[in-house]
Amino acid sequence: MFRTTRIVLLAAAVFVVTAAGQLHAQYSRVVVFGDSLCDTGNSFAATGIPPAPYYSEGRFSNGPIWIDFLQQQMGLSDAQLLNFAVGGSSTGFGFKEPPEGIFETPPGTLIPTVGEQIGIYQLVSGGVSDPDQLTILWAGSNDLFTYNLPASVVNNIEQHVRDLAATGADEFLIPGISPIGSTPSLRWTFEGFILNYFARQTNRKLNRRLNALEDELGITIHRLDTYTLTVLATLFPSHFGLTNTTNSALDDIADGLITPAEGATYLYWDIIHPTSIVHQTLAAAAIDVLTD
């Protein structure tokens, strides 16, 4: 867990990331698996979701997301970033219908799970990972949104790590589940309280399982405590450059209450996804844990 003072200071100094330079030399490439929080355009290329101009360049936000910031701060070329994440994806295997939410998808749309993303990666890579790569895996929120139990999410992520380790991947960054029940879509609802409980349980169980995998497989798994980070952003918004931590910026823009520029300082861009300024803080926090 992050110490409160450390994370608040990190948010205040998000533009000064002195550790990024050493990461550029440390990793030959970054390989990404996950959902809309990591998707840098795969969903948009396949379905046109999320739509412009409400979303920026196929990102589920108003600007660059944390993967973009990581790439920039680490000095990686496009060829050094392999991103298989797809918006709406869940953990597990096979193809699934997109979760119900804010987007209408074409009839018959099926979304590859993380297991399928890994399968595509294995085909592209010939089943061999680069020994100096960083593997990012962030998923599970969509599982919980559809009321899959924490144990199921943790079991799936364990298998994904095992499958990737079998290709030679030996260094991972795995963020936890954020307090998804506190998003504008569910804030102060019974379902929201349940989902926050599920998120906390998932994070606790996952940390124990990842500890065991590190010992068994001889790999390194960095953790990013996005639950605590989100709670702190809610409690100390000014330290994170935020002016609103409860509403959807898009909804307030549509109602004529704010301008898009003012919406950029919200915690949430829509009823689920964070703004680009939040993603920038996530990237800074990620670099912090990678160099800790």
TrEMBL record:
UniProt superkingdom: Bacteria
Top EC group: transferase
Residue stretches in coiled coil: 196-223
Gene3D superfamilies: SGNH hydrolase
Record bears the keyword Transferase: yes
Signal sequence extent: 1-25
Keyword hit for Ligase: no
GO molecular function: phosphatidylcholine-sterol O-acyltransferase activity
EC number: 2.3.1.43
Keywords assigned: Acyltransferase, Coiled coil, Hydrolase, Signal, Transferase
Pfam families given in the database record: Lipase_GDSL (PF00657)
The protein, known as: Phosphatidylcholine-sterol acyltransferase
Protein's organism: Stieleria magnilauensis
